[in-house]
Specification:
single chain, 217 residues, mainly alpha
Length: 217
């Protein structure tokens, strides 16, 4: 039985992982857009932000529960991201200030960057703990390089988020999450494939790299 199970192809769950990561953000965008009043109405915009935040928090918890049900586990990154969504969301609702929602990605990027770079400096590839099952064959040097590269990328994304939330309106910043941050994450992931192939990644697994990437929301 074990030999039969070992020869079964790995389930293609990458796009479901992406839906779990970005679904709550899409829910927030939809609710915010629907609830935003026409014209210049600051109080109405704050109300829309609060409604969107409540929907965001609920969707994040649903996504976490779905991950547990569908995949049988919840990744530490998803658990942390959900906790921060709920925490910063609660502050947004309590203080009626959308800046807490905008700072949440910065907090996540900085925390992941510190963890990955800190692990790399100690000779520990923390990404290997999360993604080894998806990227079979990658050697230790490859995992260390991948952890270092993602750590630096997360620092860059934190800086970018701070710049964009300063110079953009709240709604433009929301759309930047889809049209700037997500494409950059996929592009960066794609640039890592040649390095991973040199360090043992099987050719049949290279498409999974683009699906099973660390969350960047």
């Amino acid at each position: 039985m074990s030999e039969i199970e070992s020869t079964k192809p790995k389930p293609k769950t990458g796009w479901l992982n992406i839906a779990v990561d970005y679904g709550p953000l899409l829910v927030f965008l939809a609710v915010y857009k629907f609830a935003t009043p026409e014209g210049d109405a600051p109080l109405g915009q704050i109300a829309a932000v609060i409604k969107g935040t409540i929907a965001f928090m609920v969707a994040a918890i649903v996504a976490l529960a779905f991950s547990k049900w569908k995949f049988g586990k919840v990744s530490p990154m998803l658990l942390l991201s959900t906790a921060l969504i709920v925490g910063f969301g609660a502050l947004t609702i309590w203080l009626r200030d959308e800046r807490f929602i905008q700072f949440k990605p910065t907090a996540i990027y900085l925390l992941f960057g510190v963890l990955l770079i800190g692990g790399w400096m100690r000779g520990k590839a923390l990404l290997q703990i999360l993604l080894e099952a998806a990227f079979a064959g990658v050697d230790r040097a490859g995992w260390l390089k991948l952890s270092r590269n993602w750590g630096l990328f997360f620092f860059a994304m934190a800086a970018l988020n701070e710049v964009l939330r300063t110079v953009m309106s709240f709604e433009d910043w929301l759309w930047a999450k889809l049209w700037v941050f997500m494409p950059l994450s996929f592009l960066f992931t794609f640039t890592q494939i040649p390095m991973l192939l040199r360090h043992g990644l099987a050719l049949e697994d290279r498409d999974e790299v683009l699906k099973d990437q660390p969350p960047t929301d």
